[in-house]
Each structure stands twice: as structure tokens, then as C-alpha cells.
């Protein structure tokens, strides 16, 4: 670590005693005062004006202190970064300590500036766009990548961020950052087929850090995957329908042998399962591609809940569970009755399938005045907490063997998630292994319709 200025003589003189008490430095002033008083005593003894000489000695000492104070003030006011005047006594100690603290502070500042320069150089080299805004959301700094990805130039410093990024989805995200923990993906330009993932992070009081990166390749791969699933699902539907029809025809023959009947029953079971998978894939593809049907229908929840309860009782015939229905809310839902019924039905059938025979399942519709929720509570096998974050991923299975045995497609909760997202709702899961689970579809007040 370098020393920006030469060490003054005062600092060298006091280097070994810089941590001594104030008494050490005061002794120098006392020695000077004692020296002046001795001279005054000799002169006073010779002239007979002892008291006057003593007063004069004190005046000289006081004048010297005033002069030292003047030098200290002049150095601090006009030359604080130069070597301080070489003074003894308390004023010299004061100058030395002040100068030493100043030097240490400047070294720390130099290190901080170097650290900031290195950090800024790193940010400049990033391929990701980085933008800093102040409390008024005005741009303070942006790296070169911000111009390529977001169109933010050096001349935009001091402008409000929303005057540059005016995409409707970004404005919505900017106003409700906490509702998008992973940020948003937007296509900023209609002409340019470029997709950008944007994440905002608060720091300080109201300052923001924006990080954005190009996800065009990822978006294209995802779109290719969705198109493939959509196309293959449509292509599979027709042959499956033909196969199912022929298998059903052969199964209904009265003269068919038991051996062939068992084989056709298995084929029919598998074609039904395959058909259910294709239907779920088509529904999920439509939901993901946002090919939405109108979401402005008023869904009468008592009627829907009773219909779901009747369907559940029919599905429950082979399981023997105790089913309960609870409705204590006067709110109806605003949305798509077909999509909502599909999502709720998935939650109910999952509870029935994954609850050992003779269990208890409660289906409910409740509200707390601010939001309403559809719930399914079971006494089933439960779910290990480590699986909860991935439950809504397509084809994710907690227990693959059990899922295949129950005939599930692995898409039910993925469909539930997308249906709820399109209704501004979300899914909450509480579960304890071997004790049961509670699935809640929570809807905001904006999606509710009050019934008198």
C-alpha cells in the first residue's frame, strides 16, 4: 500500500508514541511554559519586577499557543492535503492525528474507487444488460449491453425508465414487482424477433437494479417444443379414435374367447389412457399458447360445486372414500367455466387416487372477504416437502410406479397451474407425509362476483 504524501517530521518524531496519553504531549507545552517562567524569574529577580515578568512569560506562552492555533486553522482551511506544519505539544499531536486519519481515509477511498472501477469494468463487459435507477426511477447508469438489448443509450441518463421501456407487460411488472419473483419475458420490438428476460431488484430506499438478458434462442426452442407437442397430439388423435372404435367393437362380441377378451380389455384400457394423455396435451398446449376462450363468464359456484361433487362420487365408487362438500361463500367466479371445472376436477381426482381406500376427502369453496379459494383436503399418502416446488411441472411424478398404477398422465397439476394463472389465481399446497394434503386454488377479489 503506497503513501500518497511523504511522512512529515512530526509524524516521524511521534511514530513510536502516537498511542501515548495526552499527558505525554502536554509535557512539551509545560516544559516551554516552565522555561519561560524561569527566564522571567531571573529577569524579575534582577530588575525587581518579578510579577510583571511572570505575566509577560504567560503572555508569550499564550501568544505562542495562538500562533499554533492560527497555523492549524490555516492548514486545515487551505492546505489540508499537504504536509502539516511541524508543531510541538498538544497542537502538534492534534495535527499529527488529524493527518494520519486523513491519510488512512484517503487510502480507503482509493481502495474503494479501485473496487468500484473493477466492478464497473466487469459490468461493462457483461453480455447481460444492467441498469441502475435512483429513487425517482431515473436512469443513473447503464452498461453497453443495455443499448443492444433495451435501447438505453448514454444520453438517456437522467430519464425516467418507463419513458424508454414502455411495453405494457413491463409497466405492469414495474408496478407489481413482488408478484413476479422470477421477472418477466417480453418481446420488446414488433419488428425484431428478440425476447428478453427482465428482472428488477429493489435496493436502498426506492432505487432499482434492472438485469436483462437475451432469451430468444430459449424462446424459439420452447416454441418448437410446444408446436411439436401440439402437432403430434393432433396427429395421434385420429388413429387413437380408430383403434379405440375397433377395440370396443371386438370387446362387445359375445362369442369372443376369454383369452382374447382379456387382451382387448387391456388394449382398450391403454387406448383410453393414451387418449386422456393426448387430450391433456392439447389442453395444456392451448393454455400455454394463450389461445384463450373468453374469461368473462359468471360461474355459479354452488351449481359447479354440486356437479363436481356428483362426478367425484361416481369416480369414488371403486375407492370407498368418505366425501364431504362445504360451501360457505356467497361469491361466484368470473372466468371460463370449462377451464375452471377441468382444473378443479383434476385436484379432486388426484385426491381420490392418492388416498388409500376408506379415506376422507373434503371439497370446499370459502372466502375471507378479500379472496376466495377452492380447496381439496384428503387423508392420503401426503407429499415430501422436497417435491412441492416441482409439483406443477409437466410429467413430474413424486412416485412414478404409483402414478403409472393409478393411470395418471402427469399433466394434471400443470393444467391446474396454467388455468389458475390465466384467472389471476395461484395454487397453494400443504402436505405431510402419511397424513394427507390440502390443495387450495386461491382467487383474488377481482376474479369474484358477489351474490346477494
Automatic annotation (TrEMBL):
User: Which part of the chain is the Histidine kinase domain?
Assistant: 231-447
Pfam families (alphabetical): HATPase_c, HisKA, PhoR
Please classify the protein's predominant subcellular localization into one broad category: membrane
Q: What class of enzyme is it?
A: transferase
Q: Under the cellular component aspect of Gene Ontology, which terms does the record hold? A: plasma membrane
One Gene Ontology term of the biological-process aspect is: phosphate ion transport
InterPro entries xrefs: BphY/WalK/GraS-like, HATPase_C_sf, HATPase_dom, His_kinase_dom, HisK_dim/P_dom, HisK_dim/P_sf, PhoR_N, Sig_transdc_His_kin-like_C
What's one GO MF term for it?
phosphorelay sensor kinase activity
What exactly does this protein do? Member of the two-component regulatory system PhoR/PhoB involved in the phosphate regulon genes expression. PhoR may function as a membrane-associated protein kinase that phosphorylates PhoB in response to environmental signals.
What's the protein called, per UniProt? Phosphate regulon sensor protein PhoR
| The organism of origin for this protein | Acinetobacter larvae
Amino acid at each position: 500500500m503506497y503513501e500518497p504524501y511523504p511522512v512529515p517530521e512530526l509524524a516521524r518524531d511521534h511514530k513510536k508514541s502516537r498511542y501515548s496519553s495526552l499527558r505525554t504531549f502536554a509535557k512539551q507545552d509545560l516544559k516551554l511554559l516552565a522555561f519561560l517562567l524561569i527566564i522571567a524569574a531571573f529577569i524579575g529577580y534582577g530588575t525587581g519586577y518579578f510579577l510583571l515578568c511572570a505575566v509577560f512569560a504567560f503572555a508569550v506562552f499564550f501568544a505562542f499557543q495562538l500562533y499554533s492555533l492560527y497555523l492549524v486553522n490555516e492548514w486545515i482551511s487551505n492546505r489540508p492535503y499537504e504536509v502539516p506544519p511541524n508543531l510541538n505539544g498538544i497542537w502538534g499531536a492534534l495535527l499529527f492525528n488529524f493527518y494520519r486519519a486523513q491519510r488512512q481515509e484517503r487510502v480507503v477511498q482509493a481502495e474503494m474507487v479501485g473496487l468500484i472501477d473493477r466492478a464497473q469494468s466487469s459490468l461493462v463487459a457483461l453480455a447481460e444488460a444492467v441498469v441502475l435507477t435512483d429513487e425517482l426511477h431515473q436512469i443513473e447508469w447503464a452498461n453497453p449491453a443495455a443499448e443492444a438489448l433495451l435501447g438505453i443509450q448514454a444520453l438517456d441518463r437522467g430519464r425516467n425508465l418507463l419513458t424508454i421501456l414502455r411495453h405494457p407487460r413491463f409497466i405492469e411488472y414495474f408496478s407489481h414487482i413482488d408478484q413476479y419473483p422470477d421477472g418477466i419475458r417480453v418481446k420488446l420490438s414488433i419488428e425484431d424477433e428478440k425476447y428478453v428476460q427482465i428482472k428488477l431488484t429493489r435496493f436502498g430506499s426506492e432505487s432499482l437494479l434492472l438485469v436483462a438478458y437475451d432469451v430468444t434462442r430459449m424462446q424459439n426452442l420452447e416454441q418448437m417444443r410446444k408446436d411439436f407437442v401440439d402437432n403430434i397430439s393432433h396427429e395421434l388423435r385420429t388413429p387413437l379414435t380408430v383403434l379405440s372404435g375397433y377395440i370396443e367393437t371386438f370387446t362387445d362380441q359375445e362369442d369372443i374367447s376369454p383369452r382374447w377378451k382379456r387382451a382387448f380389455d387391456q388394449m382398450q384400457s391403454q387406448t383410453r389412457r393414451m387418449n386422456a394423455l393426448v387430450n391433456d396435451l392439447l389442453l395444456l398446449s392451448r393454455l400455454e399458447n394463450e389461445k384463450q376462450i373468453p374469461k368473462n363468464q359468471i360461474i355459479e359456484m354452488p351449481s359447479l360445486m354440486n356437479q363436481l361433487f356428483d362426478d367425484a362420487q361416481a369416480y369414488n365408487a371403486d375407492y370407498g372414500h368418505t366425501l364431504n362438500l362445504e360451501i360457505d361463500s356467497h361469491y361466484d367466479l368470473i372466468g371460463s367455466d370449462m377451464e375452471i371445472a377441468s382444473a378443479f376436477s383434476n385436484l379432486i381426482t388426484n385426491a381420490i387416487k392418492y388416498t388409500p381406500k376408506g379415506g376422507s376427502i373434503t371439497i370446499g369453496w370459502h372466502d375471507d372477504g378479500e379472496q376466495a379459494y377452492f380447496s381439496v383436503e384428503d387423508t392420503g399418502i401426503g407429499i415430501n416437502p422436497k417435491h412441492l416446488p416441482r409439483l406443477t411441472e409437466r410429467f413430474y411424478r413424486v412416485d412414478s410406479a404409483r402414478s403409472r398404477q393409478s393411470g395418471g398422465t402427469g399433466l394434471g397439476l400443470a393444467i391446474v397451474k396454467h388455468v389458475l394463472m390465466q384467472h389471476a389465481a395461484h395454487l397453494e399446497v400443504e402436505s405431510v407425509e402419511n397424513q394427507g394434503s390440502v390443495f387450495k386454488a386461491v382467487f383474488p377479489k377481482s376474479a369474484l362476483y358477489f351474490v346477494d
